[in-house]
Amino acid sequence: MSKKADLLSGIDEEDQENQTLVFKVFGYGSLLWKVNFNYSSRDHGHIKGFQRKFWQNNKTHRGTEEKPGRVAILHKAKEDDKLCGAMFTIKGASDIEDAKQKLDTRETVLGGYISIPTTFYDECGVKSDVTVFTATPDNDLYVGQICDHPHDDVEHIATQVVDAKGRAGTNAEYVIRLADYVRRHFPNEDDEHLFLLEKKVTEKLRNRSRTIQINYDHMNDINHHDI
Q: What are 159-181's pLDDT values in tens digits?
């Protein structure tokens, strides 16, 4: 075989090796509807032993230092409890490196999360090893459950959410778009924490809009009488 053929053969083998490299990450929060890396496939399914909780402050994407927002993390639950989401499969060394860098910045550096391994089950029950990002009480942004009663805790979170906005948008958008995605793609998902928070946030935004409209109408009346 000629040197040129050897070189071409080596390149082909390297390309094939790169394509066999696979990285799989599980998304359960904003990653479901806001992906900023290339991926080969998205599969719906679930992981076990966790619940989705808005127990993490965020001071970059969905809040600021003065008014932090709230974002979702994983909370340990019963072993058979299921948490629905999506597995993103990234193939090839270049795309894997890019995805890992972006996820590290988005989740770890700016979000205070760590990555852990777990098992993903697709809609046919097929298992896959995945990486998932979550937060623990060890980081400064962790809040946990503040109120004893879950409903009171969600009320407190909702009040914080409607006032928060970061570089990626409002915190309310984060909650509402996540709830909408889960409702549309996982109709059997009974995430009381998420859906109650969405309800509270929506109500507060609606009441705020109503108050603004009332104040606007009041000012118009005053101006009309002054003419």
A: 999 999 999 999 999 999 999 99
Cα distance between residue 56 and residue 89, in whole Å:
26
| DSSP H or E run through 82 | strand 82-91
DSSP 101: H
Long-range contacts of 182-186 (CB under 8 A, 24+ apart): 182/32, 182/84, 185/44, 185/84, 186/44, 186/84
Please count the other Cβ atoms lying within 10 Å of the Cβ belonging to residue 213.
Answer: 10
Q: Is 25 helix (H, G, I), strand (E, B) or coil?
A: strand
Q: Phi and psi of 112, rounded to 5°? A: 80, 20
pTM over 0.85: no
- Residue in the block written with tokens 């127990």: 55
Helices (H), the chain: 3-20, 93-103, 150-162, 171-185, 192-226
27 near 77, Cβ under 8 Å?
Answer: no
Q: What is the CA radius of gyration of the chain?
A: 22
Buried b (16+ CB within 10 A) or exposed e, 176-210: bbbbebbeeebeebebebbebbbebbbebbeeeee
Catalytic positions, written as ranges = 107
Per DSSP, 222 falls in state H
For every residue of 162-193, DSSP letters joined together read HT-EETTEEHHHHHHHHHHHHHHH-TT---HH
Pick from 60, 21, 47, 77: nearest CA to 171? 60
pLDDT in tens, 104-139: 999 999 999 999 999 999 999 999 999 999 999 999
